[in-house]
Amino acid sequence: AQLALEVDYESRRDFETRYRVLMENSRDALVLVDAASGRITDLNKAAAAILGSSPDALVGGLLSGELSAGNKSEFLDRLIAAAANDGATSLQSATQKSRRSVAIFPTLFRAGGDRTLLCRLETENRAEGVAAELA
Amino acid sequence: AQLALEVDYESRRDFETRYRVLMENSRDALVLVDAASGRITDLNKAAAAILGSSPDALVGGLLSGELSAGNKSEFLDRLIAAAANDGATSLQSATQKSRRSVAIFPTLFRAGGDRTLLCRLETENRAEGVAAELA
């Protein structure tokens, strides 16, 4: 049983490490949001930079509070509806702190019993880059 | 103890799910390579498409076998050396199957006691997109 515990611990640590490496090394700005509460559960530095604050200051807060996003429930409903289209539909908004235009591409998934939204944030510069890439 | 086990299992599953969602939804082509053996431990669909095969067929095989990469040990040494520069240095190569030029951006990390390389693959189209973005 001790060995099984150790193996399980190693395995958990392995995926946790992989998850953190992917978040840190992603060139996309990524925010994870609890779909029930609308609160930010994790985000990377690129996303924190767009929202104009540090990751530590943003985790635990409402994503809708960082955006010109109307009320919390309505914003969550719109995110979940957009997520039904599997990352292809975006919501347009603006950041509260810097008033930058931002497009939010949400994907919904279930982890540990909770529904979570993975939101990719795209500012206009990034969208131009992608457009050039597709041309 | 039963409860602790369940919590640990949930936690492992949670990070495993998050890891898989990030891999699948990344717009980057990502390959994880065991730094000791040079074997592919995981990759996403974007990376499999560049290498010209299915993820299932590629996992467990040598990354160097999919590239015009010289011998295995030399290729691994070059990847690890490039990774020392934290994702900013790339190796130039070409895919074996389609002879497409590809740039490999490696990052080295440790998970579960093993050293792993996270390799981002960039084809020329993608590199142009990024150049346009920076312009």
From TrEMBL, chains A, B:
Q: What are the PAS domain coordinates in residue numbering?
A: 15-60
Q: What is this protein called?
A: Transcriptional regulator PpsR
**Species the sequence originates in:** Litoreibacter ponti
